[in-house]
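Entry 12.
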Amino acid sequence: MARRPRHVLPGQAMHLIQRGNNRQAIFFADADYHFDYEALEDAAIRYGCAVHAYVFMTNHVHLLMTPSTRDGPSRVMQSVGRRYVRHVNTTHQRTGTLWEGRFRSAIVDSERYLLTCSRYIELNPIRAGMVNSPQDYRWSSYRHNAQGRHDSLLSLHGVYQRLGSDCTSRQDAYCRLFHGAFSPGEMEKIRVATAVGNAHVAVGHRVPGKRLVMAAFRRKSRL
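Predicted 3D structure (tokens):
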């Protein structure tokens, strides 16, 4: 059966998820996180994708990125996936499948949901019970977006830049977004959109020149 084409709009942000096979671990040592980070940074530059937020969890990865070309996200994920599998198999003397399959993705309505999606990504370690505060988790974009710590992987999205007139005011405004809880509707929109993988589904409602409506899909998934 032919794969459905992945819906990508150059210049429009996307939420991507790559999971380990059977939700098993993909990171086994600190060096693995470093390797994946560097591979992602190299691939994002090479294939013209701006990364705005990320989290590397034990058994999956979340990314928020804006591609400049239609094939950019696929090229990035293929490049990182292949390099990382070789690294893991060699370093940890393992064989077999590491990834669940193709990565899942959803277009993000930048104006309404980009910061919601970024917050959702960076709060993953909290929901998983790994830390008490997002700043305590090393392998996410929170320390850069909320505290100004340098992170060479990241590019600021226009929506984030409009939070304030300078770095300090933007970081303060971003921190305040984390003071409130997600509404059930916000969580559901993100989970539904990414659960269907590469279907024509968006987190939100509109992008320039398009009307994207949430699919009538109610598969529950803990992301």
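Annotation: Residues 111 and 159 are 7 Å apart (CA to CA). Residues 205-223 have pLDDT under 50 and may be disordered.
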